[in-house]
Design a protein that fits this description.
Layout (H helix, E strand, L loop, with lengths): L15 H9 L5 H5 L5 E3 L4 E2 L9 E14 L5 E7 L4 E6 L4 H6 L5 E7 L1 E3 L2 E5 L2 E5 L11 E3 L8 H17 L10 H6 L5 H9 L7 H6 L3 H26 L10 H9 L7 H15 L5 E6 L5 H14 L3 E5 L3 H14 L7 E4 L5 H13 L4 E4 L13 E6 L7 H7 L11 E6 L5 H7 L4 E5 L10 E6 L3 H13 L3 E5 L7 H18 L5 E4 L5 H12 L5 E4 L12 E7 L6 H8 L10 E6 L5 H12 L3 H12 L1 H5 L1 H6 L7 H4 L2 H15 L1 H12 L9
The chain binds adenosine-5'-diphosphate (ADP) and magnesium ion.
The site of magnesium ion (MG) has 4 residues, from helix 11.
């Protein structure tokens, strides 16, 4: 077997126990060890004079014992004062043996390593590593000491020794690990070779500081992070090519069908909608699967574009599945599609997790025997038990609510030996271009960059919570003018329970404060049927004020609602706020969004909210959000978490993404043989993304 492919247990010092523990870190082979990088370093390369020490430093120093004693008051401890020509420091041990107090006898020379802190008697160090020495020769290390991420039961020393062996095997013959990055790319970005990079990080000769690591501007680290991100990008590009090789049904509508459908709509399509529809029509006419992402700001009218795509499938006698991230949204699509397709003799089936028993069975049968043409639902659509008769098109709405892996997994639904359904993905969360490449490189992108006519931008105001009374009065006037209002309660996303409780309290409070206003409440812990009936009631104007949690973030469409109050907007990402705000401004009247923040608000917080006040362009807002808060907020932590990056860190390495894209195109064109090995090196046998 190839040297680096040997199991870690072939190294000395790694027994079966350690091997099991290493496996928990994803380390099986010697090669894996090479890519297990230190997360920080200790400096044992020089001896610090005691007089130069200050709290927080973790360093090596030497000194002579002046006095050692066991203190009996309070917690028993052994203290030893040691000094050199420059100063004095106390070593303190709470756990100690009799032998230790003998070793540390007056006059002994010791070397110590540990973190310095302030104690009762000036500088001290608790439980230092120490050694009694005869002289100060040979006590320093030649390079920084790497500290590796560990797992329970695994010792730093064990891991360090194992990596050392792995490195020396590798350095004997660096050809064992091919450097797949072409020379021209290394030169362009001034990156070290793979072997140099690994050596710098595992056995740093130079000084590497914690800051350098954190900021990611160490060329060795940058190069590896770059290569890892490149692998993620390349696999999506490769997937795209692989999918395009499949067959897909040709979907098209006749002129008459198309005309009948469009004429029945209560509005004319915008030119952006028409352009995107043309792109979809062209894709669906080809006999290879469409893989298209439609990005369009909230309210830009993506649903009707999706419906048109559904018409193509319907007219060609294929089924279409439409998946929405929430029941609320699925239900809304269900209602809209029934309206839009009422002249087409289309049988629409509706399937969510709530559907149980007989009704569910019936729906499943309809889907399987082809009675159902358009199938609308939540992710329940893609459970094992759902079998499609002849699925020609999959539409995924608000894709940002699903992970990239989930999306890829769906492609296999409706797949036959050689053919796959077309896929249309829609999102209102504009992903900055740089991040899009890690999420959407496998897709062609269409953008609806125009809002339906007559929309006025939502006037956004940033208001402190102290002015709550005034706001409540405004709701009262608003209601008198027959307009409707949303009141959104936000809390830290993790705590849905608390968020729902807060919404309940707020609803109670507002009901009392506003006797002439019909108040309703909707939150995530209500039954789907309850939520639906409330939403429907709000749409019918049975209620004037809807108190809601962020469940209304996606898709809900009530044109008469033109005022939105968002409590504690500082807790949410800008893109999410923009998305929420998109619920208003859908009708003819002037609309308002009041961001009611809690004082004190940091300058950064103020700045963020002001961006929302000044811009109504989701793309601009997403770019700013990325700049200010990093990709976690923009992509959703769920997605960044799922990427499982080993070395790269999206927060830190955003700047690399531009390079990655350039490099990928060079590699795909000029070095196609490197593509798969780069993917394999970083993503290995992982099935997360794997397509076939
Ligand atoms: P989103 O892109 O956020 O999903 P929707 O598809 O829900 O937006 O559309 C928002 C609203 O705009 C809906 O009420 C829809 O009927 C309406 N709409 C869509 N296209 C047009 C258009 N071309 N002209 C007027 N109204 C439109
Ligand atoms: Mg929508």
């Amino acid at each position: 077997m190839e040297t680096l492919a040997q199991p870690v247990s072939s190294l000395s010092g790694i027994g079966s126990q350690s091997a099991i523990r290493l496996e928990k870190l994803g380390i099986r082979t010697i090669r894996d060890l090479l890519f297990h990088l230190p997360h920080r370093y200790q400096d044992r390369t020089k001896i610090y004079p005691i007089g130069s020490l200050s709290p927080g430093m973790a360093v090596l120093f030497c000194g002579t014992v002046e006095h050692t004693e066991v203190l009996m008051r309070g917690r028993h401890s052994l203290t030893s004062r040691i000094s050199d020509q420059t100063g004095t420091i106390t070593l303190r041990f709470f756990h100690f043996s009799a032998k230790q107090s003998l070793d540390l006898k007056t006059g002994a020379l010791v070397s110590c390593f540990g973190e310095i802190r302030y104690g009762y008697q000036g500088l001290e160090i608790i439980h230092p590593e120490y050694k009694v020495i005869s002289d100060t020769d040979n006590i320093t290390e030649t390079c920084l000491t790497p500290i590796y991420p560990l797992t329970e039961g695994l010792y730093q020393g064990t891991l360090r020794k194992a990596v050392k062996q792995a490195m020396s095997l590798y350095l004997q013959d660096t050809q064992l690990l091919t450097d797949w990055l072409p020379q021209e790319i290394l030169q362009q970005y001034r990156y070290p070779s793979l072997s140099e990079a690994l050596q710098t990080l595992h056995q740093p000769q130079q000084q590497i500081t914690a800051e350098q690591l954190q900021q990611g501007n160490l060329p060795a680290l940058k190069r590896l992070a770059f290569e890892e991100l490149l692998a993620h990008h390349l696999i999506l590009l490769t997937n795209k090519q692989a999918v395009k090789k499949w067959q897909a049904p040709v979907l098209k509508a006749s002129k008459a069908q198309s005309k009948q459908f469009l004429c029945a709509l209560p509005f004319q399509l915008t030119s952006a909608q028409n352009r995107v529809i043309e792109e979809i029509v062209a894709d669906c006419q080809s006999n290879h699967p469409m893989l298209r992402l439609v990005q369009g700001d909230v309210g830009s009218g993506k649903t009707i574009v999706a419906a048109y795509a559904a018409l193509l499938a319907l007219s060609s006698k294929y089924q279409v599945a439409i998946m929405a991230p929430t029941e609320l949204l699925a239900e809304q699509h269900n209602l809209n599609f029934r309206q839009w397709f009422k002249n087409d003799n289309a049988h629409i089936a509706y399937l969510t997790g709530q559907l149980k028993g007989k009704a569910r069975k019936q729906t499943l049968t309809e889907i399987e025997d082809g009675t159902a043409h358009i199938i609308i639902g939540t992710h329940a659509l893609f459970q094992e038990s759902v079998n499609f008769h002849q699925l020609g098109l999959i539409i995924i709405d608000e894709q940002h609510r699903f992970g990239v892996h989930q999306r890829l997994a769906l492609r296999k639904k409706g797949q036959t030996d050689s053919s796959r359904p077309h896929q249309l993905v829609m999102t209102a969360t504009p992903i900055p271009r740089t991040l899009a490449m890690l999420q959407y490189s496998d897709l062609d992108i269409s953008i609806i960059d125009e809002l339906p006519p007559g929309r006025k931008p939502v006037l956004t105001r940033v208001i402190p919570a102290e002015r709550r009374e005034q706001i409540i009065e405004k709701i009262s006037n608003w209601t008198a003018e027959k307009n409707q209002t949303y009141w959104v309660c936000t809390l830290i996303e993790e705590s849905e329970v608390l968020q729902c409780e807060a919404a309940e309290k707020t609803a109670e409070y507002l009901t009392q404060a506003l006797p002439n206003v019909r108040v309703a409440l909707v939150h995530g812990r209500m039954k789907a049927s309850e939520k639906d009936s409330i939403m429907q009631g709000f749409k019918n104007h049975d209620y004037d004020l809807l108190v809601a949690t962020t469940v209304i973030e996606v898709g809900v469409d009530v044109p008469n609602a033109s005022l939105m109050i968002i409590e504690n907007p500082e807790r949410l990402g800008l893109s999410q706020l923009h998305q929420l705000r998109g619920r208003v401004g859908r009708g003819q009247q002037e609309s308002y969004c009041l961001l009611m923040y809690q004082n004190p608000l940091s300058n950064m917080g103020k700045h963020r909210l002001s961006i929302l006040r000044e811009s109504s362009d989701g793309f601009v807002i997403a770019e700013k959000d990325l700049e200010l808060r990093g990709p976690g907020d923009v992509m959703g932590t769920r997605q960044t978490g799922l990427m499982q990056l080993k070395i790269a860190n999206l927060e830190r390495d955003t700047a690399l993404l531009e390079q990655v894209q350039q490099a990928a195109s060079i590699i795909c064109k000029q070095y196609p043989n490197a593509v798969q090995p780069i993917i394999d090196r970083w993503l290995g046998q992982t099935t997360l993304y794997s397509e076939v």
